[in-house]
Design goal:
Chain lengths: 186, 394
Amino acid sequence: MWAALGIIGGLILLVILFVIGVYNALVRLRNQVDNSWSQIDVQLKRRHDLIPNLVETAKGYMTHERGTFEAITKARAAAMGATNVADAAKAEGALGEALSKFMLVVENYPDLKANQNFLALQEELTSTENKISFARQSYNDQVLGFNNKIQMFPSNIVAGMFSFTKRDFFEIEEAAQREVPKVSFN
Amino acid sequence: MACMAFVLMALGFVIGAAVSGAPEGGMLGLLIAAGLWLILMLISYSSGDQIFLAASKAQPVTHDVHPQLFNIVEEMKVAAALPAMPKIYIINDPAPNAFATGRSPERASVAVTAGLLARLNRDELQGVVAHEVSHILHRDILFVTLAGVMLGSIVLLSEIFLRGMFYSSMGSRRRYSSGGKGGGQAQAVMMVIAILAAILAPIMAYLFYFALSRRREYLADAGAARLTRYPEGLASALEKIANDPSPQLQVANKVTAPMYIANPFKKKGHSSLSDLTSTHPPISERVKILRNMMHGAAFKDYSEAFAAVTHHKSIVPTAALTKEQVALREGQTGEERQERQQKQMRQVGDIMRKVNQFVFLTCLCGLKLKIPPNFKADKVKCPRCGNPLAIPRK
C-alpha cells in the first residue's frame, strides 16, 4: 500500500520536474529569439539613419539620378512604417534592393567614388547590410531551434499547456526567387 | 584533453608509489599532481589575457582608427550572437597574423597585425576575424590554456622527480640493504617504472597537446565558414598569409603560438614528423578543405570536405552535425589591384602613427605632415613651400 503510494508520488514528482525543465528551456529559447530580433532591429534602424546622410552626400554629384534617390527615400519611409515581421521583411527587402541599385549607379560617378566622406559612408552602409544579413541568419537559426522544440514530442505538450507559439522566419527573398524551377522530361 | 589529464594523474600516481613504496603514496602523488595543476591554472585564469596582450605589444583601437576592422568584428559579433563586443587590438608588425584571447565570450579580445590589415581585402579580413570569433565562441582560449597548463604541470613534475632521483641516487644505496629484502625489490621495480613514466609522459603530453591545438584550429575554420557563409574568404586569406615574404612575427613565442591563426614560426621543410609536432595544421591542407566545401557552409559540409581532403575520419563532434542547410554566398570585394594594395599600406601606416600619438597636419600647399610625439618644438617648417606651421598640443 505505502510502497504503491511512494511509487505514484515519485512518478508525479518526476513529471513535475520534467515540466519545469522543459518550461525553462522554452523560456530561454524564446528570450534568445527576442534578443536576436532586437539585434536585427538595431541594424535596420542604423540603416535608416545612414540613408539621409548618404543621399545628402551623393546628391551634389549625381544631379541626373532623381529617380534613384526618390526610390530610396520612399522605400525607407515604407520600411520605417512597417509594424509586423512579415511587412517589415518585405519593406526592408525593397529598401535593400533600392540601395544596391544605387550602388550600381555610383559606379558611373568617379568623383563621388573618390570623396572621402562618401567612402566612409559606403563602408558603414556595406557593414550595416552585412550586419543585417548576419543578424537575420542568427535570428533564423534561433527561430528554427525554438519552433522545433515547440513542435516536437514531448516538449510540444508543455508548450501547449503554457501556450508558446511558433515564430515567423525573417525572409527577404522575393516570391519569384523562392519558386523552384519546374523541370519536365516530356 | 582527457588524455592529458590521464597522463598527469598516472604520472603523479607512479611517482608517488615509487618514492614511498606503497599504493597509498601513489594516491598522495596523485593529489600533489592535481594540486600543482590547480595552482598554475588559477594563476593563468585570473590574469592570462592581460599578460598575453601585453607580451604581444598590442594596442587597443576604436572605431575611428580603423572603421573597417571595427565593423567587421561587429559583424562577426552579430553573426555569432556574442553577448558582448570583443575588444580590438592592433600589433605593429609587418608579418600578417591574428589571435583571440580572453577566457569567456563576455570578455574577449581580438588582435590583428598591421601586416594583416595591409594585405587582406574585406572578405579575407572577415574570414580571419570569423576564425578568431569562432575561437571565442568555442571557448578555445580557455581550452588551450587549460591544456597548456596541464602540459606545464606534467613537464614540471617529471623534471622535479628526475632531478630528485639523480641527486638522491648517490646516497641512497644504504637504504636498500637495510630495508626488508622483498619490499626493497618491489620498490626498485616501481622506481624503474616511475623513471620510464617521467621520461615518456612529457613526450606523450606534447603530442596530445599539439593534436588538441590542431583540432581546435580545424574547428575554428569550420566555424568561420559557418559564420561568414563564405569559406573562400578565409581560404584566400590563409594563402596570402602562407605566401607572405615578411620575416616571422617578432612578438610571438612558444607559449602564445597556438593562439594565432597561422603558426607564427616559419618552417623550411615539410614532413609528416613536423605535422605531428606542430600547433597548427599545414595551411595548404586548411585551404584545400575550405575550397572543397561546395554544397554549403554548415559543420556537416566542412566535415565532409575534411574527410575528402585528409582521408581521416571527421574531427567535428557529432553533436554539431545537424541536418541544417546552410547556403553559401558570393564574395563582395572585386578584383585585387596593385594600386589599392599600396593605398592600403599607406593607410595602415597612418593608423599606426595615429595610435602612437602622431600629430597630422596639412600645409596650405597640400603637403601632409606627420609629426612624431617626441618632436618637442611647437612650430615646424613645411619642407616643400617653407611655410611655418603651428603644431597643436593636447
